[in-house]
Write a structure and sequence with these properties.
Helix 1 crosses helix 6, helix 4 runs parallel beside helix 6 and helix 6 crosses helix 8. By secondary structure, this protein is mainly alpha-helical. The strands form three sheets. A three-stranded antiparallel sheet has the order 5-7-6. Strands 1-2 form a two-stranded antiparallel sheet. Strands 3-4 form a two-stranded parallel ribbon. It has eight helices and seven strands. It is 52% helix and 10% strand.
């Protein structure tokens, strides 16, 4: 589904005093998500501000084929229970805030607990793969945690963030933390597959084969640390039986399997 954008700015504020709110919602299946994203979007910071929510997997049970009908009477004005509850909460919050901004304050106990949770998540993140991609996102989880706790306080009709609000926020952020690495791993895997496809297409356009020198020159932009980043792609293609490596005669050549 194409991203849904919302940008708002008060017309009476200009220049440094202007305040802009930007949000984007993106819904996708895993397959389409991986096809649309790449590591560069993480590295450039675009995805560092995204909170990832993953849907439940499809139930592996025959119960999905059972039909049911709602117990309550459904009319044209009916709302699903979850939507009705959310609408009620928003109406209550509007009445509480009276259309004005409010200052939120957190108790020392709440701040200490959120700080400890963030420290633990960051230490765990540094031991995981793809921390070079997820690091900026993990840093922003500190602010996300505080904002989420503030929303919990407002939900209660209060302007003080308590330990209970902090614990609710930590539970939510821990889930987003896990999802972040899941998506980063998906994107990395998809990025590697794109490189494999690109190298295979290059060999095909080159008549089915190319010298090692030509391959390394063509894909030198893949190298971030050393040439192993190209070698890893070649090794995978060779082990998958897609490409053959021929170094007979002292001239290294990579050739698509089945090409002469």
């Amino acid at each position: 589904v194409p991203p849904a954008n919302k940008v708002t700015m008060k017309d009476d504020l200009k220049g440094k005093a202007a305040k802009t709110a930007f949000s984007m919602q993106f819904f996708s299946t895993r397959k389409n998500l991986v096809a649309a994203l790449d590591r560069g979007m993480f590295e450039k910071g675009f995805l560092a501000r995204v909170t990832w929510t993953l849907g439940d997997p499809k139930p592996q049970s025959d119960e999905i084929y059972l039909l049911s009908q709602p117990e309550q009477e459904v009319t044209a004005d009916s709302l699903p229970p979850a939507i009705a509850a959310l609408a009620g909460d928003l109406i209550t919050a509007r009445a509480f805030l009276k259309g004005e901004n409010v200052a939120l304050k957190a108790t020392p106990e709440a701040l200490k607990r959120m700080g400890e949770a963030y420290l633990k998540m960051d230490k765990v993140a540094q031991t995981r793969m793809n921390y070079d991609l997820t690091g900026p996102s993990v840093i922003r989880l500190k602010d996300t945690m505080l904002k989420c706790a503030g929303m919990c306080a407002l939900y209660r009709g209060d302007t003080q963030i308590t330990l209970t609000d902090a614990l609710h926020s930590i539970r939510a952020v821990e889930e987003w933390f896990t999802n972040l690495f899941t998506v980063a791993n998906w994107v990395s895997e998809g990025d590697f597959q794109r490189k494999c496809d690109e190298l295979e297409a290059f060999l095909l356009l080159s008549g089915g084969s190319a010298t090692g020198a030509k391959v390394y020159h063509r894909f030198k932009n893949w190298i971030v640390r050393d040439s192993k980043e190209i070698e890893n792609v070649l090794t995978y293609l060779i082990q998958a039986g897609i490409v053959n490596r021929d170094d007979s005669g002292g001239n290294l050549k990579y050739q698509l399997n089945g090409q002469e």
